[in-house]
């Protein structure tokens, strides 16, 4: 009431608009904070886990109330808002099987002319020869698709917890052995 023009309709309308803008902006901040609390206390992932969140993959370096930080295999740091993390599909490679490091998987497509048993044996041999691939639980091969011209094979292996290596490096060595 002490501001000049406070009793005018224009001032009242502007104050309602500003109040609405602050309320909507505050709702976003509160939503971010609730997302952060849910992520911290739900145990979906924690610092040190290797995860894929949407299209982003890396090691969780920080989980705070408003953001999640990932360090990629290429050394990049990615900061994701927790509302984005909550909306995206999260794959936690660090918790696949108790007692192991994390999942390492890759897909190859081979034409129907090559016997499937031979492909499976070669993929398992490549996994055995790859440094930082655990032998227990044993790597496995699954045929995941039968397309018109090729069969899709997925090799699934694990890294040992005792000496976790960056997932990108393990995949690099595995792909080299597959080739």
Summarize this structure briefly.
With 179 residues, the chain is of the alpha+beta class.
Key structural traits:
37% helix; five-stranded antiparallel sheet; alpha+beta; 179 residues; 8 strands; three-stranded antiparallel sheet
What report would you give on this structure?
The strands form two sheets. A five-stranded antiparallel sheet has the order 4-3-2-1-5. Strands 6-8-7 form a three-stranded antiparallel sheet, covered by helices on one side. It is built from four helices and eight strands. The protein has 179 residues and is α+β, with helices and mostly antiparallel strands. The radius of gyration is 25 Å and the shape is elongated. Strand 3 and strand 4 (77-81) form a beta hairpin.
Annotate the secondary structure layout.
Elements: H1 9-42, E1 50-53, E2 56-63, E3 67-71, E4 77-81, H2 82-87, E5 90-92, E6 100-111, H3 116-129, E7 140-146, E8 150-160, H4 167-178
Antiparallel strand pairs: 1-2, 1-5, 2-3, 3-4, 6-8, 7-8
Helix pairs in contact: 3-4
Q: Pairing-aware structural class of the strands and helices? A: alpha+beta
Low-confidence spans: none
Strand content: 25-35%
How many β-strand runs? 8
Helix count, DSSP H or I runs of 4 or more residues? 4
The largest sheet, given as strand count, sense and whether it forms a barrel, is: 5 strands, antiparallel
* Radius of gyration, in angstroms, nearest whole number: 25 Å
Q: First CA to last CA: what distance?
A: 79 Å
Shape: elongated
Reading the helices and strands in chain order gives HEEEEHEEHEEH
Mean pLDDT: 84
Largest sheet, order of strands side by side?
A: 4-3-2-1-5
Helix content: 25-40%
